Amino acid sequence: MKKLSKKIIAIFEIFLFWYCMSIVLKKDLLPNPMITLETTFTLLITSSRIWIHILVSLYRVMLGILLGTVFSIPMGILLGYSKRIEKYFGEAFDFLYMIPKIVFLPIFFVLLGIGDLSKIALIATVLFFQQTILIRDNVKNISEEIYDSIRILQASFWQIIQHVVFPSCLSGIFTSVKSSLGISFALLFITENFASQSGLGYFITKCMDRRDYVTMYAAILILAILGCILYTIFCFLERKICKWKFLNHKE
User: Fold this and answer.
1) CATH 3.30.565.10 fits domain 49-248
2) What is the pTM of this model?
3) Measured distance CA(134)–CA(146) in Å, rounded
4) Cα 23 to the chain's mean position, in Å?
5) pLDDT tens digits for 31-63?
């Protein structure tokens, strides 16, 4: 209840600042937040087209998150658990990690076309590198005493992965996904402005071109709400799956 109150206060502060700035500037570029909220509700209730944009964007970002996560788990575990693999591929992976992933977009366009696949691939690539680094570091931080205790029981490689390594990475995976949501939506916005006819990024840019700033801000609010909903869902899943992380946390 206390956390909810803090979030409500934070939202109120943001809208209060927005309202004050709209009065000070007195420009169409920054409309009144109350009018923007009314337009947002009107769009969601009366426009079927906006729901198509929402579903398309949600499909792209969710599939990108899923693919990035699925591929990062085995790679992160291998790099963290096997010193031999880390020796031969660790430096190459670190080098690729430092490259801004947006530069891969033209490559994806050439290889996968200008449709959904290239947009999804870019989001998945960003998440893949971020999560792999975090999973690798989590695996490296597992103490040798823990490994020794399960090896005494003659556990196989897969049993060690299942009962020691993977549980140690779960919380890190959720943390990485949550921290990458903002970047994922930013990349979604960028990619939806390239040869696209659907998605909230496309819709926002079209509203900007028409100087329809109220609808543009309404669409931005919808995109922000989607991000908050996904963040809340991942927080809920983390609390359910990684219960040990929150045992000593006070509500």
Assistant:
1) no
2) 0.83
3) 20
4) 34
5) 888 888 999 999 999 888 899 999 999 999 999
